[in-house]
Design brief:
Length: 217
């Protein structure tokens, strides 16, 4: 059975180019897969299937919460990928009874504990740039909690990562160090399958380095 890869494009922060180049990177590293894009517009590409976003008042990364709605996102298994990343080599999708995410081992988590001692809502040791699940993954209760306390959650937390890390700390597993953050370290980390361009406003399209041009096309 092939892998279902899913991404999210909402608003105009990312152009369609990011979606197409993500598809291209996946196609170079995986042979049996389907590619889906959750979006508020149609993606003009023969091999990219658009999943139209439902009626909701969410913005930015909060749209990823719909992935936890097992009734709406009902694929047998899937791997979600953010658009601001580069795939350098394939990684093996990991499926568990709990949703699998990234651990932010590229930052000093212990130092973060000290820095935000008076504001625990800012603490976050997980990253949702890559998430995976299958039919055995229990995630709908996270969606129900989000819907039930939506107004409070959107006010308290900066994003889905902070929310899940703080309110559902026992409801996820981690990938085994398959990714690294470019802007955090200023290094390419060529031994890692995936390089994230999170945190900063500039993404991979603004980085004038040969290795980026080699992979992001």
């Amino acid at each position: 059975m092939g892998i279902n890869f899913i991404c999210l494009k909402w608003g105009d922060k990312y152009s369609e180019e990011f979606v197409i180049k993500l598809y291209n990177m996946i196609s170079r590293h995986y042979s049996d897969f389907s590619f889906w894009c959750m979006s508020d517009t149609n993606i003009n590409h023969d091999h990219i299937q658009t999943i139209h976003l439902p009626e909701d008042n969410l913005q930015k990364w909060w749209w990823k919460m719909w992935l936890f709605n097992e009734e709406w996102m009902d694929l047998d298994s899937a791997v979600f990928l953010d658009l601001d990343l580069i795939i350098q080599k394939p990684f093996v999708p990991k499926f568990d009874s709990k949703i699998t995410m990234l651990y932010t081992d590229w930052i000093d988590v212990e130092q973060m504990h000290k820095d935000i001692l008076t504001d625990r809502y800012k603490y976050c040791e997980i990253n949702s740039s890559i998430m995976s699940w299958d039919r055995n993954t229990k995630r709908h209760h996270i969606w129900e909690d989000f819907v039930r306390h939506k107004e409070k959650i959107l006010f308290l937390f900066r994003g889905i990562d902070n929310y899940i890390n703080n309110r559902h700390k026992d409801d996820y597993r981690f990938y085994d160090s398959i990714a690294h953050s470019y802007w955090t370290t200023g290094r390419t980390w060529k031994d890692k399958p995936v390089i994230l361009f999170d945190y900063e406003q500039d993404k991979q399209d603004k980085v004038n380095e040969e290795w980026v041009k080699q992979h992001w096309k």
